[in-house]
Amino acid sequence: MVEQTLERDRDYEQEFEKAVTIIKQYEDFILTTHVNPDGDGLGSESALCLALLSLGKKVTIVNANPTPDLYYFLPERERVLVEVPHTTKHEVAIFLECPDEKRSGGVIVLPGGATHVINIDHHVFNTRYGTVNLIDPVAAAAGEQVWDLICALGCQRNNRMAIGIYTAIATDTGHFKYAGVTPQTHKIIAQLLELGVQPGYMNEQLYERVPAEGLHLLARGLSQVQYNAQRKVGWFAITQDMLTQTGAKANQTENFVNYVRAVEGVEVAVFFLETSDGRIKVSLRSRGAVDVSTIAHQFGGGGHRRAAGALLSGSMMTVQSAVLREVESRVTSKG
Ligand SMILES: [Mn+2]
């Protein structure tokens, strides 16, 4: 199957200029990203916050969920508030990779939550809810778009900003391995290294601080991986009981699904996580032939062609059978 060609919005350049003008003009900013924030959202927030502060702006960061322990090395992370809904009005709201405004978890309510809304995203599905919309599915991470913006703002760039952008791009590309990586990705990374980012330090922060409990939980999960008859679909689940028994935290499971996609022959990997409120978080990874974002969409979630997810109500059994049935049918038809 031929993959769709991804393109930037046609008016991207104009919208980009508008964003730069607004940022230069206003003083009071609020930044947010999607629920269960990841390295791209948090790293972009960190870098953009530093850039805005360096221009003398006032910056508030509000997310729907706390920052996972993994990202505690990010500059300005102590500034992140977890407050839903956030009721203080700000002049400019910047949404980082929220395909629609609700993905922020209701942190900023639109319309009316801010005078200007800058929507920065690299997802294909985006409802263009901003007063300015920077939508670029060619970007490997929203961090690439944010770096362009920081450069255009003319502020003094530094190592602390570079750490956020490096984190954003590294985590969204599986450390520069995935299909979304472009020459532009590496050009940006080169600039970040010139600002003193140490790849060894970043690797240690991002991948070599795995808590022992997390490794134990992974071992438990992987011992229960199942495959469909053709071995093209692989999956496993982590329950609240398994978390309690191992002492691991739910946010330590972020990369678990990738171990299954790495199995030879597997087209789609699925990971099911029982959340503390009894819902099931589904993570989907594809090798590329199957577009898992459309599957996630069908279950109320979203994401990218190769990486997507959704949060479902229902028992582990019901959710597993519904999702796996859909995945199987797509793998068979290569849709
Ligand atoms: Mn992203």
Measured as a percent range, the helix fraction is 25-40%
Please state the CA-atom Rg, rounded to the nearest Å: 20 Å
Shape: globular
Bound compounds, each kind once, are:
manganese (II) ion
Instruction: Give the strand order of the largest sheet, numbering strands 1, 2, ... along the chain.
Output: 3-2-1-4-5-6
The CATH superfamily of the largest domain bears the name inorganic pyrophosphatase (n-terminal core)
Average pLDDT, rounded to a whole number, is 95
Low-pLDDT stretches: none
Number of domains: 2
Characterize the biggest β-sheet.
Answer: 6 strands, parallel
Strand portion, in percent?
15-25%
Number of helices: 11
Which secondary-structure class do the elements indicate? alpha/beta
How many E-type strands? Answer: 12
CATH C-level class of the largest domain is Alpha Beta
Account of the 3D structure:
- The protein is an alpha/beta fold.
- The chain folds into 2 domains: 12-207, inorganic pyrophosphatase (n-terminal core) (Alpha-Beta Complex), CATH 3.90.1640; 212-333, Diaminopimelate Epimerase, Chain A, domain 1 (Roll), CATH 3.10.310.30.
- It is 38% helix and 19% strand.
- It contains 11 helices and 12 strands.
- The longest helix is centred in the last third of the chain and has 18 residues, at 316-333.
- The chain is globular, with a radius of gyration of 20 Å.
- The N and C termini lie close together (8 Å).
- The model has no long low-confidence stretch (mean pLDDT 95).
- The chain binds manganese (II) ion.
